[in-house]
């Protein structure tokens, strides 16, 4: 009987954008620590900073010679730009030069899909986590057109509820107008304080709206604020 060689199944890379229009909801803290947690769980993880402020690199104490700008605009191989920062965790950093990429993207055909084209060489990773900026920019549109799911951090205040409605509308528009379905992986209440009525009300509203997609709230915690100053993840700075 002839032996049949079986081709191993191709690795499927999960692509998660951490996104909210509103600033100050904990997107970067969420991105870094979710990526670090996945890496500690044994998943090969790539963390990509899609924000020109470059806070991912600052928080982890790394500064890449080449950044996401080089991938997007100059066509650099993302696997060569990525910096190993922890076991199973690589990072593509950003800085203020990424803001100039908006002009490049605006003049490109299929301008919403450039990141997806450029990141084609990341199949070696189990998960790619994208830290988005607090805006509806071409950069974020590219991130959403590359991602297959979105994690939405929502700070426990009234304006954050307005922001999450805008996020849902944006995802709907990406699906309808850009023909790219992207689903909500979860909604994470952040800066939660059980002593405050507003925090409890925001969390209950999110649970009523999103059901099981509303994750357990992340409480307001000084250790989470201190960890970036130590250039560490929360698992390193305060593992308990």
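^ structure tokens above, recovered residues below v
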């Amino acid at each position: 009987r002839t032996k049949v060689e079986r081709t191993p199944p191709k690795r499927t890379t999960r692509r998660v954008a951490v996104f909210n229009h509103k600033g100050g909801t904990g997107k970067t803290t969420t991105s870094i620590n979710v990526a670090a947690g996945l890496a500690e769980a044994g998943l090969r993880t790539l963390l990509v900073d899609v924000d020109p402020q470059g806070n991912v690199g600052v928080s982890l104490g790394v500064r890449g010679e080449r950044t996401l700008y080089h991938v997007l605009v100059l066509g650099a191989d993302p696997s060569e730009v990525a910096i190993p920062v922890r076991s199973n965790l690589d990072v593509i950093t950003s800085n203020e030069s990424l803001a100039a990429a908006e002009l490049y993207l605006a003049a490109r055909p299929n301008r919403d899909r450039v990141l997806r084209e450029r990141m084609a060489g990341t199949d070696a990773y189990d998960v790619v986590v994208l830290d988005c900026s607090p805006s509806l920019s071409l950069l974020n549109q590219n991130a959403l057109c590359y991602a297959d799911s979105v994690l939405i951090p929502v700070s426990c205040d009234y304006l954050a509820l307005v922001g999450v409605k805008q996020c849902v509308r944006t995802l709907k528009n990406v699906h309808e107008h850009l023909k790219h379905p992207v689903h909500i992986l979860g909604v994470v209440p952040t800066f939660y304080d059980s002593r405050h009525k507003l925090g409890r009300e925001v969390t209950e509203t999110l649970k009523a709206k999103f059901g099981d997609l509303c994750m357990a709230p992340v409480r307001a915690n000084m250790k989470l604020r201190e960890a970036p100053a130590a250039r560490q993840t929360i698992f390193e700075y305060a593992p308990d």
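The longest strand covers residues 183-190.
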